[in-house]
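Data card: per-record layout.
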Amino acid sequence: MSIQLYKIDESQGTYFWDLEGHWAYDSVINGAKKGFIKGYPDATFKPNNSITRAEFTKALVEALGLPVIYGEKSNLVGEGKWYTPYYYSAEKKGLIQPFDYDRKSYNPDKSITRAEMARMIARAFPNETPKGATDLTDIENLPNDLKDAVLLAYEKGIIKGYPDHTFRPDGKSTRAEAVVMIVRLLEKKAQ
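The structure for this 191-residue chain is written out next.
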């Protein structure tokens, strides 16, 4: 399923009527102007809706300026689907690995969790490892690869926890959270 896009008119400024006063407003506008995230035809962004694995992968690939790979085949992703070239771009860059999804299916329409998103973001820093210190109280029981990804992204300031010092790794990520994390990633990569 492809998202219908809302064309941004640079001369009029970027505006999504449902973002007024939203905590992620600046990041969403930044992401929309950079072109890696889009709104809907009705001029909404729907910041509190969940984002799928496929949508996040596409946004991350576009934000990082990775070449889009066409013509690959795999059991994990459907051939000829809108998200397939973005999956392969992310896989080639090492942002996704086949064993990330139980060797069964990428499940592109499944909402991406906060931990899955952190893993993809952390892999944009392939030669870095976390120091290991955090005040997040709910990541200790995560598999090591996910815990290390959350720690690295947290240490870099790309992800933040909630006021109660939780990260909620199994929580579904919202469109707003995804864009904020990608914008922070781009800022860190630019340093």
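Known properties of this structure: Confidence is low (pLDDT under 50) at residues 1-12. Residues 69 and 133 are 37 Å apart (CA to CA).

See the next section for split statistics.
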